[in-house]
Model the fold of this input.
Amino acid sequence: MLIDSHCHLDAGEFDADRDQVLQRARQVGVVQQVVPAITVASFDKTLAMRERYGCAVALGLHPIYIDAHRDEHLTQLDAALTQHRPLAVGEIGLDFFVPGLDAARQMALFEGQLKLARDHDLPVIVHIRRSQDQVLKYLRKWRVRGGIAHAFNGSRQQADEFLKLGFKLGFGGAMTYSGSQRIRKLAAELPLEAIVLETDSPDIAPAWLVGPPPGRNEPAELPRIAGVLAELRGMTLAQVAAATVANTHAALPGLAADTA
Done:
């Protein structure tokens, strides 16, 4: 049994065959997906993943889509958190990799969402691309109920700081590339209780899906990703699966009732 702790199953790339995507995942033992929203406009589609497929969902405003977010969207997110009670607030955070994104607006929006997470006593799923230290700064300020640092690619020191704040670290497709030496070293050496597994479908395709033409990532790839982690740590796949499922439950306590 495995849990995909970060999967954009609501993305348009899955509109043509979403039922089949879920069927393939279940057939290989991926029993649950956590689907985070990215904009207010996507909330209904994200929530539909819970209603139709039983997925766990998070609601939040993604930093990459900063131009789509408005000040009033924080008020709408607050109302949605009360009405729909998602598993977490996410995907939220900071992205200082994509050029042209307004850093000041990102930070204001991130801080506003952390306040909402604290007010609603929910964990968060954070996007931390080229922004680990800045994200840590705001997490120390607001002291939310832990969560997951998605697609972790920081230093060991930064990893330890996230762990001190009660976060788990998401590892997925990037770990499968032999050239990703820092990520692979972290995956091998971090305490096992620090790690959760994710696909970030349809993005961050694992090494075996690189083209030409490139393949679409999906939750059914998670067992092979877990196998890479098992190989790096000298463990069995069953051991990795049991540990990462327990870790995901610890990071996102609302999952326990869904996947027990």
